[in-house]
Amino acid sequence: MKISDKNTQIGIDIGTSKICCAITEINSDEGSNKILGVGNVPSQGIKKGSIVHRDRVMDAIEAAVREAELMAGIKVNRAMLSISGDHIRGINTQGAIAIQKSSARNVPMEQEITQNDVSRVLELAKAVSLPVDREILHILPQEYLIDTMDSIKDPVGMSGRRLEAKVHLITMAATTAKNLVNCVHEMAIDVEGLVFQALASAIATLDTDEKELGVAVVDIGAGTTDITVFYDGGVRHSAVIGVGASTVTNDIAVMLQIGMEDAEQIKLKYASAKASMSSTELEFDLPVKNGGIARKVSEHELSRYVEARMIELIQLIGREIARSDVSDQLTYGLVLTGGGAMLRNLVPLAQEKFNMPVRIGRPKNFSG
Length: 368
Ligand SMILES: Nc1ncnc2c1ncn2[C@@H]1O[C@H](COP(=O)(O)OP(=O)(O)OP(=O)(O)O)[C@@H](O)[C@H]1O
Ligand SMILES: [Mg+2]
Description:
Layout: E1 2-3, E2 8-14, E3 18-27, E4 32-42, E5 46-47, E6 50-51, H1 54-72, E7 74-75, E8 78-83, E9 89-98, H2 115-125, E10 134-146, E11 149-152, E12 162-173, H3 174-185, E13 190-196, H4 197-205, H5 208-213, E14 215-220, E15 225-231, E16 234-241, H6 245-256, H7 260-270, E17 283-285, E18 296-298, H8 299-323, E19 334-337, H9 346-354, E20 358-360, E21 366-367
Parallel strand pairs: 1-7, 2-8, 4-21, 8-13, 14-19, 19-20
Antiparallel strand pairs: 2-3, 3-4, 5-6, 9-12, 10-11, 10-12, 14-15, 15-16, 17-18
Helix pairs in contact: 6-7, 6-8, 8-9
The structure holds adenosine-5'-triphosphate and magnesium ion.
């Protein structure tokens, strides 16, 4: 097997329900990605982004990596790790610096802002006092201000006395991240960096217009629902809610008194996010436990439970979106991603409750 070269990108996504490894080749001319190999295995030992059973996690990562390697014919020796979980938080901060006069020139001149100034101001913006157990995962500039001018995207080369940066910081629990990195390291895979999965998938699904004019990307995973609000080209708010699609499965299991696996199958086959859009006449059989009596449930009854939970989730999402100061300016409304977005009739339900446009997001610029 050959070793990956600089054009190949390798990503490992560690989710609650599945662990995914993708080997892609970047075509810089077309700006597109060609998928060379993927490995997708059911996740084990992960709960809401954190390791609960280390050996099982290692086995699952290993299986996903081997599958992708085999398909691509490329040995995985390094990777970007995409992580999620309710230990991830987002905050808005800012920093400001005075622009130093260049002493090399004796001609009177307005001070020009350099890349170095930008790095300095970003350093300051991220120097917020974080609790000891937290680390910065991403620092995402929203806008720069020079003296009294605002909404500047790239200040390099402009002149002024004072430079301010407004940024969105995404932080993570240091130990949770370290444990995941260690698992991958132990397989002789070098971790090139960490990315917040919701951010990576948002960037892959949105176009520039949506990021500019305002959109909220909602990734409904198994364990968590991740929200990223974009406006004016930057991230304005991000949050992770500890309720995901597996909560629905859990409800079904409890209400119908069946096992989680059966509940999952029933959800995939018969559940609708809007009970009114499912039939009271269509019934399905519940799995019969040894010697138990046969029972039937209608799609409508099942969907009532599902709808109640989805409305609750929609309220939690709405509360988070309202926390961003641009909630009434989301021209493009909501983009739903993640496995939970595939739930039947979720789009009409969300549209109705949010009173905003809602679409399902799919990654762009991928082939193969
Ligand atoms: N067609 C479908 N209808 C309803 N739910 C679905 C459908 N397909 C997948 N799901 C649900 O989506 C969830 C898995 O989503 P996803 O693969 O995005 O999770 P994950 O990335 O592993 O989890 P997390 O992001 O929370 O770590 C499961 O709970 C599954 O039941
Ligand atoms: Mg996920």
